[in-house]
């Protein structure tokens, strides 16, 4: 999740620098996220 946050920050900074931020809609979506290491899961072996 830290990597996603860092990359989002890079995107935000780029859009602001280019003067595009005010005319840009950013939509962030995700799935459950259980396989991101939370609950000791790291892949899609569960149901």
SSE arrangement:
Layout: H1 2-17
Quick summary:
This protein is mostly helical and about 45 residues long. Helix content is about 35%, strand content about 0%. The chain is elongated.
Question: Which keywords apply here?
Answer:
47 residues; mainly alpha; 1 helix; 0% strand; elongated
Could you please describe the fold and organization of this structure?
The mean pLDDT is 82. It is built from one helix and no strands. The chain has 47 residues and is mostly helical.
Instruction: Give the integer mean of the pLDDT values.
Output: 82
Kindly state the percentage of residues in helix.
25-40%
Beta percentage is: under 5%
What shape does the CA trace take?
A: elongated
SSE string: H
Question: What summary fits the major beta sheet?
Answer: none
Number of domains: 1
- Report how far apart the termini are: 22 Å
- Count the beta strands: 0
pLDDT below 50 for ≥5 consecutive residues: which ranges? none
- The total count of helices amounts to 1
Structural class comes to mainly alpha
Give me the Rg, rounded. 15 Å
